[in-house]
Amino acid sequence: MAINLRSSITDIPRNVLEGERDQFGIQPFEDGLINFIENTNTPITIALQGEWGSGKTSLMNSLQQSLSVGDNSKFHSIWLNTWEYALMNDAHTTLINILGCLIQETAKVADIDESKTQKMLGKLAKFSKAAGSFAIKTAGNKLADGVGDFVSEQIIPSEGKSTVSEIRNELQKAISDCCSNTEKSNFIFFIDDLDRIDPPVAVELLELLKNIFTLKNCVFVLAIDYDVVIKGLEPKFGKLTDYNEREFRSFFDKIIQVPFSMPVNNYKIDDFLKESLLNINYITTEQGKKTELIVNFTDIANLTVGSNPRALKRMLNSLSLIGCINAAKSKKMKEENEDDQLHSDLEILINFALVSIQISYPPVYRLLTMYPNFLQWNESVALQMNLKALDEQSREKLAKNPEFDEVWEQVLFRLCENDPYLKKKALNISRLLNTIKETVIEHGESVEDIIGGIISLSSVTNLEAFDKTPQEYHRGELLKSIRRRLIPELQKELPEISNKIKPQGARVQTNAYIKFTEKDWGHWVKLFTHPHEGKIRLIIISTKWMCSVNYGSFEEALKKAELWEQYEILERDYNNFTTKHSGFEQLPLNEQMSKYENCHQLNPHLYYVLPNIDAFKEEDNIKKICGVIAELYGFLLRMSELKKSLDNYFMNNKI
To answer: Is 592 in contact with 376 (CB distance < 8 Å)?
Structure first.
């Protein structure tokens, strides 16, 4: 299949007449609905229910094409977009204009004499005057506010009832005559965009349609979200509660005979995502052939934006915009900017996830921009975010839930508790972040490196990004510059190993390593930067493997080897050492423990924030960073000694 590359995915309804195919696997549902409508008794009203962007208009387009086009069609078709009549009009005018349009379109199809059409419109004007007067007398200021509490058993004033009956009788006769004299036996009305007009007006329109257009040989197909009906009925019934829910439902059931919920949860989005990602050049043709990669995209989408077509298209367009901007940045620099380009499957997958989180869960995205290593979210992070503390009962309950049993997951839970929408989606968010964690670790990468290195790319489409514009800089070049200045200073600071202090690894993309041993992966530190609240944050990281998980927990192993006191001294010294280095922050050592499949690790993390790139070139700042790294090297040596003592104990005791 040839791919026609574009920079965006158009968010317009599917046009069956132009041969646009079903991309979401909705055809079986559509065929069933067509069969039902073709064989239904009339009058009947069908509601296509679904949230914003769920594909209601696309389905109606397809239904209209299948039911009213062609020699074997049984239906005369009329389409009305209610939103067009609501623009720049008050509630009352909107309703009357919509009814007038329906009468005119019906008269045109039924070939009613022009004079009769004008008489019906005149009667509608008479009714409009009576209904308008009634509304003003009963609704008071609500009408002026655009609320218009028209919905009532006395919706039509007594002086207007005979007028409505006359209009309905004349329409019925015209429709019956038309159906008797043509091969098409029914009329089908498609009423679109009811959920784009003011909810009370939408509810009022439903009531008026019931009173005027409940006619034989007529099928009404309405595109509406039930939530709109609920909002529109609040002036009559108050806020929805468990006690009045039946009243809301009864009104809806009175108007709608057949509710059809858009089968969003059944949409097959794999092919749509694959084709769209190829079209916007986000993935290569070879990547498009990787089934597992496409499944991963689908899983991430389902946990974030879901299968709502409009939400998916918005996310895809954000991805495309990010790609266009970063490509332009690279071109401007006249070099291949490896930092700002995504190459590996892992990078494009994580970027996809981050943009999806940005769109679906903005508070979570904001926290990730501040603390990319979500595995290290802890109580200090929770305090900075002003998150409510967990009571003991909640903590015990979460500890038994595998989705929220870790410290960072409980911080996430507390963040979600602050927002009604996030609260409903907390399980999905936890599963998503755990999926990211597992995927990154499987590729042998660091969560902090990957998230921190990629998240700044998506800031251009983040609405919150305009609060504090992120620093624009080339991460690789900055890290090379910092490392180039640091190594001579470290060699002076640590003369006993000066000949061993060298760069580790030739490539600098999102991080830069400095080693303190002849061989790689002995004692080392990793430098990493990312934009942080309008500034640049340097992160200094190392890792020290301590003992096998077969020995039990790290604490149990230390106590068994009678080394717990030695560790407590190390921990105390480490937790206090940055207090003499102004500007540096650290997380407590006991919160830097990672437990992987077969080992326990200590992962020291240090943070240093400076205002801009130039600040990292200043001699005083380089010396401060050097002093911290030199002292951290001392702690790595102490950790190694502790590890050696642990190993000796378990080896000698054959445990």
So the answer is: yes
Over range 424-453, report the average pLDDT: 89
Which secondary-structure segment (H or E) carries 601? Answer: strand 600-602
Taking the CA atoms of 416, 420, 423 and 428 in sequence, report the sign of the dihedral they define: negative
Contact 537, 608 (CB under 8 A): yes
Q: At a CB cut-off of 8 Å and minimum separation 6, what does 304 contact?
A: 315, 353, 356, 357, 359, 360, 361, 428, 432
User: Does residue 224 contact residue 48 with C-beta atoms inside 8 Å?
Assistant: yes
CA distance 251 to 235: 14
What the chain holds in terms of domains, given with CATH numbers, is: 28-263 (3.40.50), 271-466 (no CATH), 475-652 (3.30.1460)
pLDDT for 534: 77
Dump the DSSP string for 527-579. Answer: EEEEEETTEEEEEEE--EEEE-GGG-SHHHHHHHTT-HHHHHHHHHHHHHHGG
Among residues 624, 652, 640, the alpha carbon closest in space to that of 566 is found at 640
Polymer length in residues for the chain:
655
Degrees, nearest 5: CA angle 295-301-307: 105
DSSP string, 26-37: -HHHHHHHHHHH
- What is the average pLDDT across 129-134? 56
Among 13, 25, 47, residue whose Cα is nearest residue 264: 25
Q: Is 148 left (phi over 0), alpha (psi -120 to 50) or beta?
A: left
As a whole number of angstroms, the distance between CA 518 and CA 495 comes to: 15
The mean of the pLDDT values for the chain is: 82
> Could you give the angle at which helices 392-399 and 407-417 cross, rounded to 10 degrees?
120
Q: Read off the tokens for 517.
A: 């041993």
The tokens describing 41, both together, are 């008794």
What residue type is assigned to position 114 of the chain? Answer: E
Q: Which residue has the higher pLDDT, 322 or 112?
A: 112
β-sheet bridge partners, residue 518: none
Tokens read off for 348: 């494009």
Greatest extent of the chain over all pairs of C-alpha atoms, in Å: 108
Q: Which residue has the tokens 């580790």?
A: 504
Q: Is the pLDDT of residue 497 over 90?
A: yes
Query: Which tokens in the block code for residue 53?
Result: 């962007």
At 633 the three-state DSSP class reads: helix
* CB half-sphere exposure, 424, CA atoms < 13 A: 4
SS3 content of the chain, % helix, strand, coil (to 5): 60, 10, 30
E-assigned strand segments in 339-439? none
